[in-house]
Design a protein that fits this description.
The protein has 259 residues and is α/β, with parallel strands linked by helices. It folds into 2 domains: 157 residues, 3-Layer(aba) Sandwich (Rossmann fold); 43 residues, no CATH class. Helices cover 35% and strands 15% of the residues. The strands form 2 sheets. A 7-stranded parallel beta sheet has the order 6-5-4-3-7-8-9, with helices on both faces. Strands 1-2 form a two-stranded antiparallel ribbon. Helix 2 links the parallel strand 4 and strand 5. Helix 4 packs parallel to helix 5.
């Protein structure tokens, strides 16, 4: 990849640091995790870092005691949340996909050592960087396909939470991964559970897979009352705190169709 991605607007890269409360592990060599010697931490790109899955990913990174460090955080237009994450996590790069939203970021808004890149082309370039070890694809909806595809082209291991990538281009994405040596690992809850369960047995023993569902906010509502449902009601999930798209998909059961 080029040394400076297209649309980059600052040029002060430094080693990535771990999110608070962990300590930055930017050096080389071996680090101790729970008293066990481990290799240099894996550098993670979190695409959609301000969404619910992105935030959960950063929590995992923070709890990993240096096994993982955030190298790149990307968001579409959630500037306030992205800046807060940048100050806490001190990644090497933050990417704002929407150029208009990026105009809200002042020159002094980012912490020292964190560079800003703008636009989808810049994100495409950065996810292919050899400095990135793993890519978490957590951008919601069809918008997540492009950057996921770029990561697969570069042979990355992609932790995939974006179901739409496989709905829209599943066979093509799998063929691309086989060609480049990339690996797709499901991290969305249902897919991850199935993936882990299937690893414990033999595929020939599986007759069918049953997807469960919470039912969303309307599980106990009579069918005839659903004609007057409002968006505000649909956004009140009784169990989970999620982004608006997945919450609506849960209420309509569309998420089960995507799965």
């Amino acid at each position: 990849m080029p040394s400076s991605p297209r649309s980059a607007v600052s040029d002060n890269p430094s080693a990535a640091g771990g999110c608070s409360p962990t300590t930055a592990l930017a050096g080389h060599g071996v680090h101790g995790v729970h008293g066990i010697a481990t290799a240099q931490p894996l550098r993670i790109a979190v695409l959609g870092s301000t969404g619910s899955i992105g935030k959960s990913t950063l929590d995992v990174i923070a709890a990993s005691r240096g096994r993982f460090v955030p190298f790149l955080l990307a968001a579409h237009r959630s500037i306030a949340g992205l800046l807060e994450q940048a100050r806490a996590c001190r990644p090497r790069w933050v990417v704002v996909v929407d150029p208009a939203a990026a105009a809200q970021i002042g020159a002094a808004a980012l912490p020292p050592g964190t560079s800003l890149a703008i636009g989808p082309e810049a994100l495409d370039d950065l996810v292919q960087s050899p400095e990135i070890d793993r890519v978490v694809s957590a951008i919601a909806g069809a918008a997540g396909l492009r950057s996921t595809w770029s990561a697969l082209e570069a042979g990355k291991t992609v932790a995939l939470a974006n179901k739409e990538t496989l709905v829209m281009a599943g066979p093509l994405a799998q063929q691309l991964a086989e060609r480049t040596g990339a690996r797709i690992v499901p991290v969305d809850s249902e897919h991850s559970a199935i993936h882990q369960a299937l690893r414990t047995g033999v595929i020939d023993e599986v007759a069918r897979i049953i997807l469960t569902a919470s039912g969303g906010p309307f599980r106990t509502r009579a069918r005839e009352t659903l004609v007057d449902v409002t968006p505000a009601e649909a956004l009140k999930h009784p169990t989970w705190s999620m982004g608006p798209k997945i919450t609506i998909d849960s209420a309509t059961m569309m998420n089960k169709a995507l799965e």
